Amino acid sequence: MRTVEHLFAVPLDHGRPDGELIEVFAREYVAAAHPASAVERLPWLVFLQGGPGGRGGRVTSLSGWMKAAAQDFRILMLDQRGTGLSTPADRTTLPRRGGPAAQAAYLAHFRADSIVLDCEVIRRELGSGPWTVFGQSFGGFCALSYLSLAPQGLRRAIITGGLAPLDGPAERVYRATYARVAARNAEYFGWYPDDRPRVAEVMAHLDAADERLPSGERLTPERFQLVGSLLGGNTRVDQLHYLLEDAFTLGTDGPHLSDGFLAQVHTLVTRAPNQLYAVLHEAIYAQGEATDWAAWRVLDEHPEFRPDAAEPLLLGEMVMPWYFEQDPALVPLAETARLLAETADWGPLYDPGRLAANEVPVAAAVYRDDIFVDRGLSLETAGRVRGLNIWETGDFHHDGISDDGEGIFARLLAMADPDRAPGG
After folding, report:
1. Rounded to an integer, what distance in angstroms lies between the CA atom of residue 185 and that of residue 226?
2. Which of 86, 137, 145, 148 is catalytic?
3. 18, 210, 253, 345: which one is catalytic?
4. Which residues form the AB hydrolase-1 domain (predicted)?
5. By the 8 A CB rule, do 2 and 61 touch?
6. Domain check: are 177 and 153 in the same one?
7. What is the pLDDT of residue 422?
8. Terminal-to-terminal C-alpha distance of the chain
9. Cα–Cα distance between 278 and 293 in angstroms, integer?
10. Residue 223 located in a structural domain
11. Are residues 337 and 278 in the same domain?
């Protein structure tokens, strides 16, 4: 493959194009099989990654969905604003904006609507006509915003595990996903019944013992529950079993959690690499009302997830206010996160009327047992987007493109535009 690095200046606030500018980095990937003289004629495909707060992928070879896409496209991989080599937004840089109120006001410009308008600035600067976007997870949310805010910039859209609800409070999301996470817990413990008492044993031990993560802070029972993120994977789910099987070691003063276990848990429960995920996660659902820690409030309806339950379940993709007390990377952002959770004047992310009249070819994969993006809410959204073609499958979970990205991409591309000629 060949790569080209790009750096673009975009307005912080697209409503004030003459105001402050920030930078957005992107890396272009092209299959080496394409002659250099033909590259300029290849159409662009922009990948919108999951998150929020995740940088674009760094790859050393074209495989999976990128291998399939690179046959006909130039791939543009963005570091969405605030991430990677774009102008950063984290606990070290945000204090330069001022106090928590100034930081929250700044981060209000880091949602899907701003990411879409960044894409339009970039598209025009590259001299591209309407292009193809491929949105995974939160990237699919961005694709829906693109169809709402700037459909003239799109040739087609492909979405995997990323059909967001178009309206309604964030509580809708968590009422649906808590139920799916509970079902996934039950499925997992059906496969590995000995892991049910092992999880309870780890939780009880953490309640009584002072076990420290490699970063120095105490591992609490509720933070350990975050390893449930592995339940959202088709094959990663088995990693949870391997994690648990050597959790304990015997010291001179009794059982302890092993260093290897604690090191692995740390990689699953720290938000140091993607702090924006924790700070903005509920805001990706907010339209015209405050989220007010929706996942935390809905937890009251699901006592089986409480760490003091008799057999507590593992959590999925829920952000709680105690994140900002227990994760050292997030502690400096606690007040900023609180202000964002209390923000009520969020603008719209989607235009239901424009989506109902959509003319852009769209195809989306809906994963039947997805614990992060609920099937029912996804199908509800699909029914409100004119011409959106759905492929519903139980063969994959949220990380489907990690399992068979090549096959999934090829199928959706054909569904989005069955009459497409190669290279078109």
Report:
1. 13
2. 137
3. 345
4. 43-169
5. no
6. no
7. 63
8. 20
9. 11
10. yes
11. yes
- Coil, strand, or helix at residue 76? strand
One-letter amino acid identity for 48? Answer: L
Write down the pTM of the prediction: 0.96
User: Is residue 380 helix, strand or coil?
Assistant: helix
Catalytic residue at 145? no
Region of 98 please: left (phi>0), alpha (psi -120 to 50) or beta.
Answer: left
Element housing 366 (H / E): strand 362-367
- Cα torsion 138, 144, 148, 149 to 10°: value is 40
Contact present, 292 and 341 (Cβ < 8 Å): yes
> What distance in Å separates the CA atoms of residue 7 and residue 161, rounded to the nearest whole number?
29
Contact between 112 and 284 under an 8 Å Cβ cutoff? The reply is yes
Q: Which residues of the chain have pLDDT under 70?
A: 421-424
Give the other-Cβ count within 10 Å of 382's Cβ. Answer: 17
Backbone angles phi, psi at 81, to 5 degrees: -45, 135
Contact assessment for residue 277 and residue 271, using Cβ atoms and an 8 Å cutoff: yes
Please indicate, yes or no, if residue 421 is contained in any of the structural domains: no
How far apart CA 146 and CA 153 sit, in angstroms, is 8
Q: How far apart are CA 424 and CA 413, in angstroms?
A: 11
Query: Which of 145, 195, 398, 399 is an active site residue?
Result: 398
Q: Which two tokens stand for residue 236?
A: 């990663």
Active-site residue, 167 included:
no
How many domains is the chain built from? 2
Residue with tokens 């993560």: 213
